[in-house]
Each structure stands twice: as C-alpha cells, then as structure tokens.
Amino acid sequence: AIGCVVGTMVGLLPGLGPLATISLLLPLTYSIPTGGALIMLAGIYYGAQYGDSVSAITMKIPHASSIVACIDGYQLTLEGRTGLALFTAGISSFIGGTVAIVVLAWLAPALGEVAFLFGPADYCALMLVGFVCVSFVTTGSLLNGRAMCAVGVLLGQIGTDVNSGVQRFTFDIPTLTDGVGLVSVALGCFGIAEITRNLDAHEERSPFNGKIHLMPSWAEFKRIIPSALRGSAVGSFLGILPGGGPVIAQFAAYAIDKKVSKFKHEIGHGAIEGVAGQAAADEAAARTSFIPLMSIGIPENAVMALMMAAFIIKGIQPGPNMIAGHPDLFWGLVASMWVGNVFLVILNVPLVRYWLSLFKIPYAVLFPAILFFCCIGTYSINNNLDDVFTTAVFGLAGYLFMRLDLDAAPLMLGFILGPMLEENFRRAMLLSRGHFGAFVTRPISGTLLALIALVVVWQTTVFVLRLRETRARAPIAQTPAA
C-alpha cells in the first residue's frame, strides 16, 4: 500500500518516475525485511504507471510510459471530459494489471524461456514492425508522420556509439556525448510546448470548469472493455521481452486500437479507446516485466535492473532457481501485485474528483508550478543543469511542431525504436558475419518480415485505390468550344 501511494504521487510529478524514486529508496532496503522491501519497491513501480497518466491527461505533461496518453487523454480534457478519461485510465489499468498477474502466476516459468527464443535478428524485425505502426500512431498526414519518425531516429543517433566509441552528431558539445535524454524530449515536445501554446492563446484558460462527469455510460463502458483487453494482451506479451516494457507496449496497443476498433476514426481526436488500450498495456507490461527477471535473471529495463540490485542486496539471486528456491517470496510478490492492483483502484478512482480540484487553479497561477516541477524532475535524473536547457530547446521545437500542425508522437516512436533497431541490427550482422540471410532464415524474424511486407503492400494498395477514387470524383474540366 505504501509503495502504491508513493508511486502514484511520484507519477504525478513531471520528470520524476519510478527509476529515480527506487534508486533513492534502495539504501533503505537494508533495514527492511526482505519481503516488505521488495514489495514496496514493486508497488512504487506499478503505482507510478497510473500516476503518470494523471499528469499526461490533465496537463499533457507525460513521463516515458504515458506519452501516448497525451494524444486522446488531453483531447478529452479540452472537451471537458477529464473525469471520464481518468476513470477510464484507472479501470483499464486495473484490467491490465489483473490479466498480467494471471499470466505471471500461471506461466512465469515457461514464458521466461520465450526471451531465449529471440535473437538480435528477431528483435531487429520486431523494431521494424514498430516503424510500420507509424501510420497508426500519427493523427495527421502519413507523410508528415513518417518524416517526424525519421527526425526521431536521427535524434536517437546523437551521442557515443556503443560499439565503436565514436561520437556522432555531438558537435563537440560535452552534454551530447551521452545522447539526448528521453525525459527531456518527452517533457519538451509535449509538456513545455503545451504550456507555451496556452500562454500564446489570447483567451484566459482554466483547465477544468463545470461539473465533473466521472462514470462512463453503458455505451462508453462497452467501448472501454475490448480496448483494455487488447491492451492487456499486448502489454503482457511485450513486457516479457527484454527491451519491450511499458514504453513500447503503449505504442503497440494504440496502433492496434487505431486499426481494429469500431471507432478507429475517432482515435487521435479524443476517443476513450486511445486512453483505455494504452493504460492497460502500460500496467500489464509493468507487471510481466518481472517474468524475465525472476525466471531467467535478465532485467528488461532500468527499473528491473534496480529491482535486481534489491534482490541481490537481500542475498537472493534472480534466475531459474529463484521460483523453486524462494517460493514464499515469489508468491508473496504475486499476491502483493493483486493487492496493490485493487488498492490502486480503491485509492485512485474515488480520488479523481480531488485530482481535478487541484487543477481548477487559474492557469496563470498553475503554469509556473508546472514549469518548476518540470525543471526539478529533469534535473533530478542526472543532476545536470544542461538537461534543463535541453528540455527547453525541445519545448521550443515542440511548440513549432504544433504551429506547423506536425504530430510529435511519431517522433517519440522513432526516438525510442531507432537506437534499439541499430543495436540489434549490428549485433545480428556481427553474429552472422555480415550475411543478411540471417534475417530471413530465422523463423521469428522471417515471419515478422513477411508480415511487414504484407502490411506495406496493403498500405500501398489502399493508398493507390484512394488516389484513383479521388481523381475519378474530381470534376472534369470542360474545354470551351472554339
């Protein structure tokens, strides 16, 4: 319970997240019993996943795991349906967490071995699938979306090459030797840019006015459940894979919803499916990310690396023997996830009205506090003031994107997937000694590449047919008789 409360509060603060909080609290685990310490740290992790969505939906200030929540969630806020958006996020997180807990308890030993089936070539193909999803994530022109994705890939190349040690696109600026931080890009392109846009508006803006409608109608509830279940399945699967996790899961769930939902034309313009699917995927991936850690001893992200450190501090080596050697700890963690999942619903859904009351403050008073927390959150990651200036630069870039009607979500997708694609591609080429055949001879990568080819052919066919239809409907100019 303490971990869930702390995680939720941390998620509300821009820039701060479970990584910084767990790293700060890690020394306290020496004086806390093993079960209580690990359960508290785990609660902070998946509690922060819901807290992230609150700031993303209400103020368009996301963390890494709530970038997609800004797209439809903030649009619902502008329509005066913030209560519905937050309620949807809470219920969907509960559904995603429940599905993931069942998967964790039932299939953890077996699913942990799935990670061994994926080699660098398979991960490379999986990243390419993510790039194909750009057309589903973008809310504007497909060409603009792909261009923004390419910009994101280029931004992801900034820094020191991990293989050769060569600095790329740093321009002899020491700050850029470690690359551009994900938090700086996310807070700048979404949070700071939105604040700047609101200050540029002529009218006085107050975020929340009028009555708060919390409970969805039956028709809306029927739209939430299928989307949440799809997101739960996607998040549960991607959480198992090293390099997956909540960040990738939210984009994948959003892309699937935008393709298969009955209301797919509304997604990107304030649809509850855009909130439900990503919230469920986010929470599911946060829980199933424990599977590779506890079953094969591989942390799949930075937070899981800290959790692994906490296990080792307590004298427990995560791996194949953990479930058999420490069944009380394993099942205690699983039970705590279920208790925490219920507690998050009990805590956060009734508190939606109070979260909204905090943001009834006039925007002229609210935005300095938001900027303050953005700066503090960005600075606290590396204790580096240059990160704050980097956030400001991307804030200006994000504002220009808004003025030019360019969507920042594909940029974030490219920024996240680009370095992962390059790393796995180079590993695959190294292992295959430069032979490209490794990508088509492996069953997983070959299947994924075949699916990518089918999707590209299908998208091209649809584009050509629509273009012909548009030209056929165009009025034929009549040449006047001589």
What does this structure look like?
By secondary structure, this protein is mainly alpha-helical. The chain has one domain. Helix content is 71%, strand content 1%. The protein is built from 23 helices and two strands. The chain has helices at 2-12, 18-25, 34-59, 69-78, 82-111, 114-117, 120-132, 134-137, 142-156, 182-200, 218-238, 245-260, 273-288, 290-296, 302-313, 322-325, 327-348, 352-358, 363-382, 385-403, 409-431, 438-441, 443-473; strands at 159-160, 167-168. The protein has a two-stranded antiparallel ribbon with strand order 1-2. Strand 1 and strand 2 form a beta hairpin. Helix 4 (69-78) runs antiparallel to helix 5, helix 5 packs parallel to helix 11 and helix 19 (363-382) packs across helix 20. The longest helix is centred in the last third of the chain and has 31 residues, at 443-473. Mean pLDDT is 77; it is low at 203-207.
Topology:
Blueprint: H1 2-12, H2 18-25, H3 34-59, H4 69-78, H5 82-111, H6 114-117, H7 120-132, H8 134-137, H9 142-156, E1 159-160, E2 167-168, H10 182-200, H11 218-238, H12 245-260, H13 273-288, H14 290-296, H15 302-313, H16 322-325, H17 327-348, H18 352-358, H19 363-382, H20 385-403, H21 409-431, H22 438-441, H23 443-473
Antiparallel strand pairs: 1-2
